[in-house]
Structures are given as structure tokens and as C-alpha cells.
Amino acid sequence: MTFKDQFRFVRQNMKKNKTRLFMTILATAIGCTFLIVLASVGFGLHKSIIQDVMEDRLVTEIQVHGKEAGEGNFQGIKDEDIKHFEEISGVKAVTRRQFLQQSPIFTTGEYSGQSEAVAAYFPEEVKAGFELSEGRLPEKENEVVVGSSFADALSLEPKDGENAFNEDGTVKDKYAYKGELVGKTIEMEVVKLEGGKEVKKSIPLTITGVTKKPSKEWMQIRTVFISEEILKELEAFTGTSGGSPEQVEGAPEDTGRIYDTVSLYAEDVEAVTAINDKLKDGNYMVYSIVNEMKQINMVFTILKIGLLFIGTIALIIASIGIYNTMTMAVTERAPDIGIMKAIGAHPKTIKRIFVLESSYIGLLGALFGTIVAYGISYAVNLALPLVLERVFEEAPPEGLMLSYIPWSLTLISVVICLTVTIFSGWRPAKRATQVDVLKAMRREV
User: Fold this and answer.
1) DSSP classification of residue 196
2) Which of the two ends of the chain, N or C, has the fewest CB atoms closer than 10 A to its terminal CB?
3) Is the model's pLDDT at 437 over the cut of 50?
4) What sequence ranges are listed for the domain ABC3 transporter permease C-terminal (predicted)?
């Protein structure tokens, strides 16, 4: 008997009791749906968290916070360290920033506001992915780039007795700055203390560009990115490192530029671990999001395995129905089995027919279960934001995905479903090969 004949024989016999067949396939489909949907929660949360991490911070970034100098002492990152970082194999860019140790007041026309100022080395910033939404990068020492939310910090001087700001800290509409920024000249006013009195200095700067808006709407960048030459001018004015208004007692002696933030960017993710190890061997204190991702991945891998295990239990319960169906099928088809044996059918052929039937039931259950699971997953992701907003009165995190079904999960679930159903039909199939021919012909099985 060819495989095609065996399959035709199976289909003909399955049509004899459609109700029982339907209920068995339904139970299998429900078990498969439960398995996929349950596991999809782990995959969905994993995807949401990893995606959020990757959007907020580059995966190839390695932050260097200092260097151990022995006996519990630490030192900041200097120019010689920067040069060493640039020579490490696999490093694409080395960014370094120095914060101005006061918040200057920036003025353009009648508008003014207070923002932080940072000295940045733009050639390396660009290599690391620094982008503008408009304008260009600075080419002269008095040219600057401002953050995407810098205009939100500017406001008109309020009238007597009025407040220019709303309760949430934003500038009221009638006082807010609505003009263009690129090409505008702003005055940066800094101060220093002499004899307990403030001495002010104003430096004219030209805005040449505005940074790209961050992926998260709630994030605001009001920073003004100045040149290193401007920072040196301010340090000369205040007589302090970093442009602090007054000398801090107990401050270390000036031994050269010490950067506030230094980050290395690897050429690819694979190079991050090797660079990390090399920096640690040099006693540098480093942090990389890749290390955090490894821990997150491990936690979610355990969670997904656990959910798959729980979902498999539902399939095992459904397999009881398949076992019962196949056992009854063997009893009902005893005469057919007897005839097949009488004409010389091999026991393996008989067993294969019943295993094929249980596999067919499992395949149909897996197919329908997968389709329903995808529908449920879509509905859950669509309804979740509405439930959070209307029932719990909370806005869901941007990009939250509670359920996600990758092709790998579908494949794993189908394999588990088929494996369980085949084992469920294995014992009844073996029993079919043991049917006595004479008793079967007399319908006395």
C-alpha cells in the first residue's frame, strides 16, 4: 500500500465520525493556541524591553567613567587616555564632553532662558551617530549647535505680577519663543565671584544647527554644544577648571583636561566584548549596555522556557482526547484491520496508518491553533492601550508589545504539538497490530 493510498484510507475513516473528529481537533487547537499565546507574552515583553534599550542607547556604546590608580584612588579620563582608546582595535569613535560648571543665561532679542552648556568634539560625535534635524555643524569657535528643545527654554520677560511658566514648567504660549533658531545670534552670559560679588561676561554665539529629536517624546534636550575654544575662554575668565563661578575648596591641582563623560563606540556589536575586556585589563571602569542585555536575555530565556513548559501541559491534556479517539478508532475498524492482515498487510503498515491519522489530527489542530493565536495576539496588542487608559487611567509605555509571535515560536509550537499527538496515537496504533484476524473477522475484538 502506497503512502497516497494510506492517506486516502485515513481520510475516509476519519469522515465516519465527524463530530468526534471535530472535538478532538478542537481540543488540540485550543492546547496549541494556549501554548503559543502564553509563550508570546514572554517574547513580547522581551522584544519591548530590548527595543526600548536599543532605541535609548546605542548597543555599541561603552562608557568609561575613570581609571583605578591603586589603593582605592581613581582618576579621570585625560587626553592621553583618549589617544590610547583611539588606538584600540575595533573602536570606531571616542566621544568626550566637558560640562560648563554653571548654567549660563542665553539671550536672543527679547527672549532669554537658562540651559546647560557642553564642550564637544564634533568629528568624533558625528562618527558616533550625532545627527541634526536642521542646519549644519559648527565650523568656527563661536558657532554652536543647540538641543531640539532649546527653544522651549526661551521666554519673554513676564509682565508685573505674572508668571511666564505653566504649572508643568513649560512656558506660557504668549511668552514662548516661536521663531527660527538656525542663523540666530545668542548671547551667553556667565558669571564669576570676586570678593563676594558677581562679575558677568557675555559671549556672542551663532546657532548653526539643531539636534535631532530623541525617539521618546518626553525626552528634552536643551543643551548648547559649544567649542573647546569657548570653554577655554570661559575658564580663563573664571580662573577655574570647567568654568565654575568660584574655586572649590580642596579641588585637585590642574593636571590637564579631565573629561566629564567619555564613550567609546565599537564598529559592531561583536567587537564590544573584546574592547570591554581590554579596557578592564587597563583598570578602566567601564559600562556597556551589552552586559545588561546579556542579563536581560538570560532572564527572559528562562521565562520563555517556563511558559513553553506550562503551555505544553495544555497540549498533554488535549492528547488524552486523541488517545481516546484513536483507541475507539482501532475498536471500530477491527474488521478492516482483520481484512488488511488477511491479505498480507505488514504490521508496520497498519501501525503507520494509525500514527498517520493521529499526526493528521495534530497537524490540523496546530494549523487552526496557530491562526487563532495570531488573531488573539493582534487583538491583545490592540486592546491593551485602551484597557490601560480607560480602566486604569494610565498611558501605556510607548512601543509596549505584550504579545509577540516570531516564526521560531510558531515552529517550536507546531513541533511540540505534532510530537505530543504522535505519541498519543502510538499506543493505539501498536494495539491495532495485535488484533487477531479471526476475531476481527467475527467482529469480536
Assistant:
1) T
2) N
3) yes
4) 309-434
